[in-house]
Amino acid sequence: MPTRKTGPQPLEFTAADPLLASFAPVVARDTRTLILGSLPGVASLAASQYYGHPRNAFWRLVGDSIGVDLVGLDYETRLSVLLEHRIGLWDVIANARRIGSLDSAIREHSQNDLVTLIDTLPDLTTVAFNGGTAAKIGMKALGERALRYRTLLLPSSSPAHASLSYAQKLEIWRRLAASNAAPG
Questions:
Q1: What is d(CA 102, CA 1) in angstroms, rounded to the nearest whole number?
Q2: H or E element that contains 77
Q3: Residue 8 lies in a domain
Q4: Residue 180: active-site member
Q5: Pick from 132, 134, 130: nearest CA to 111
């Protein structure tokens, strides 16, 4: 009698799997805080928008942190409001192969050039990572340069990261507002 495997099966990747690419950075010369994610998920890529999955709490978390209802705004206005609040966005991964949207499924990734980007941001004081994968890859990419900035490890805004409640996540994400205060 043949045996059946049960439980999760390992993902198998081939060279024919699509190479997914991150979006361009959203920054202005006066960006003070840069939020770095890992790589846009399937819904975000389909919508061509950062954090485009309706259950991803990113826009709600940032909005509640800076006191603006970002969820109620169209995408382009959301980006403008972030820039007005001197907050930029990008991802640590330039491209990768991935089946689905989980960071744990990312394979064969290449990194965005974070050092070159931050060198164009003279007012940058804080680098915030949206989740552990972004922090692991981003801190390695920044190396000793990370010591020049306040770094925040934020709990992932992904609906897959359910170990913390929204209120618990927000308590940590509110550090963004403090990081954007003008230097004393």
A1: 35
A2: helix 75-84
A3: no
A4: no
A5: 134
Residue 183 clears pLDDT 50, i.e. is over it: no
Q: What contacts 137, CB < 8 A, 6 or more positions away?
A: 38, 92, 93, 109, 111
Tell me the per-residue pLDDT of 89-133, one tens digit each, with 9 for 90 and over.
Answer: 999 987 776 665 555 555 666 678 999 999 999 999 999 999 888
Backbone angles phi, psi at 142, to 5 degrees: -80, -25
User: CATH number, domain at 95?
Assistant: 3.40.470.10
Residue with tokens 């920044």: 142
Q: State the helix-helix crossing angle for 58-66 and 166-173, rounded to 10 degrees.
A: 50
pLDDT tens for residues 139-159? 999 999 999 999 999 999 987
Retrieve residue 1's tokens.
């009698």
Q: Which residue is listed with tokens 């004081």?
A: 125
